[in-house]
TrEMBL record:
This is SnoaL-like domain-containing protein. The lineage of its organism: Bacteria, Bacillati, Actinomycetota, Actinomycetes, Pseudonocardiales. It comes from the Bacteria.
Length: 122
C-alpha cells in the first residue's frame, strides 16, 4: 500500500524520501487536536515534514484496507520506548501512477479503537 509505504518513509532515517511517493500537486489535510495543517503541492508537504521535530515516533499500522484507488489505514503512534501516544487514521487517493494524489490524516491522543501500549518493544 502506498500510504503505508509513505508512513514507513516518514519514520525512517530520511523522512523526506516519502515525497517520492506523492504527486507533485498532492493535496493534504493533517488534523491534530486543536490544529489543522493543509497544503497543496510537494513543497507544502516538504515544509511540514521538515518542520516536524525528530522525536523517534513510529506509525504502527493495526488495520488496512483498499477499495479501488482509495487506501485506508488505522494505527497507533508509538515513541521509541514503545509507549503509545495516540491513534491515527489516514485515507489516501492513489493516482494512476501509484502515488498519493490526496490524503487526509486524523490523530487523537486519547480516543482510539484499541488500547495504547504502555511501553516495551515498539
Amino acid at each position: 500500500m502506498i500510504i503505508e509505504d509513505y508512513y514507513a518513509q516518514l519514520d525512517g532515517a530520511t523522512p523526506l524520501a516519502g515525497l517520492d511517493l506523492v504527486e507533485p500537486d498532492v493535496e493534504f489535510l493533517i488534523a491534530l487536536p486543536g490544529r489543522e495543517i493543509t497544503g497543496s503541492g510537494r513543497a507544502d508537504l516538504e515544509a511540514y515534514i521538515a518542520g516536524r521535530p525528530a522525536v523517534g515516533r513510529r506509525h504502527r499500522v493495526v488495520s488496512r484496507g483498499t477499495d479501488g484507488d482509495v487506501e485506508m489505514i488505522y494505527g497507533i503512534i508509538t515513541e521509541g520506548d514503545g509507549r503509545g501516544t495516540g491513534s491515527f487514521s489516514s485515507v489516501a487517493l492513489v493516482s494512476p501512477d501509484k502515488r498519493l494524489a490526496r490524503y487526509q490524516a486524523f490523530f487523537h491522543p486519547t480516543f482510539g479503537m484499541f488500547p495504547l501500549p504502555t511501553g516495551g518493544a515498539a
